[in-house]
Design goal:
With 247 residues, the protein is α/β, with parallel strands linked by helices. The chain is built from seven helices and 14 strands. 46% of the residues are buried.
Length: 247
């Protein structure tokens, strides 16, 4: 499994970083975890062909995590000339929210006949969702977005990749990241308790319980970026746009 950090910034682009988007390649399949508004920019920078991506999995319905789907639709139709199917999996209501966002930003864009099949799959915490690359398990977290917000666990072949999405600390993160080969964890702040987000101070207390082999800290605000040199520990990585990790 190979992970490419397409974008690891917070909603405000702190440190000049692009919004949340991770490219995963495993077993001949390519997928995205989240698709922030800058996703197409990041894929261009990384030299990744969007037409090779068959699945996009969305953690929650905030613009910096899913709004890139709007530009994806236009790019696929008018630039990439996509013909291969695309599956978008996400929280309940994702199709309606996508349509509302696309029509608000580019009126009429969802009415144009597409060259490719676009299907939406709603995920819930009761059962894993089968995608081309493997199984995705979702865990409800604490981050209001007008629909359930999820942490995600991707199990493909012999590898497990977990992703916290955006959330304050909840116990579901232990199950989500338990023994994962890599756990991507939102680390918005360095210290203290941040409502609906996490800090390094909070995360570090729980890492022994989770037992992930490696942890990638991401979604950092300006203060966290300024103090990132103080983050230490075996298996702790800090995200940068363009970072590639072999899992």
């Amino acid at each position: 499994m190979k992970l490419t950090v397409v974008g690891c910034g917070d909603a405000f682009g702190s440190g000049g970083r692009l919004q949340t988007c991770y490219h995963v390649e495993s077993g001949g399949h390519q997928l995205l975890l989240d698709c922030g508004a800058t996703a197409i920019i990041g894929l261009n920078r990384a030299g990744i062909d969007p037409n090779g991506i068959g699945t996009i999995v969305i953690s929650h319905l905030h613009g910096d995590h899913f709004a890139g789907l709007v530009w994806w639709l236009l790019h696929a139709q008018h630039v990439a000339k996509r013909t291969v199917p695309l599956t978008v999996a996400g929280p309940p209501g994702i199709e309606a929210r996508f349509a509302a966002a696309a029509e608000a930003l580019f009126p009429g864009s969802t009415k144009v006949a597409r060259r490719f099949d676009l299907s939406f799959v709603e995920m819930g915490p009761d059962a894993p969702t089968q995608i081309a690359a493997g199984l995705v398990r979702s865990y409800v977290v604490s981050h209001p977005s007008g629909a359930p917000s999820h942490a995600l666990r991707l199990e493909t072949g012999s590898r497990t990749l977990a992703f916290s999405g955006d959330t304050e600390w909840v116990e579901a993160l232990v199950a989500c990241g338990a023994g994962a080969d890599l756990f991507i964890m939102e680390c918005y702040a360095f210290g203290g308790s941040v409502r609906y987000h996490m800090s390094w101070e909070v995360i570090s207390q729980h890492l022994p319980r989770i037992g992930a082999r490696q942890v990638l800290l991401t979604h950092m605000n300006a203060d966290m970026l300024a103090q990132r040199h103080q983050v230490t520990g075996d298996g702790i990585l800090l995200a940068d746009d363009g970072l590639v990790i072999e899992i």
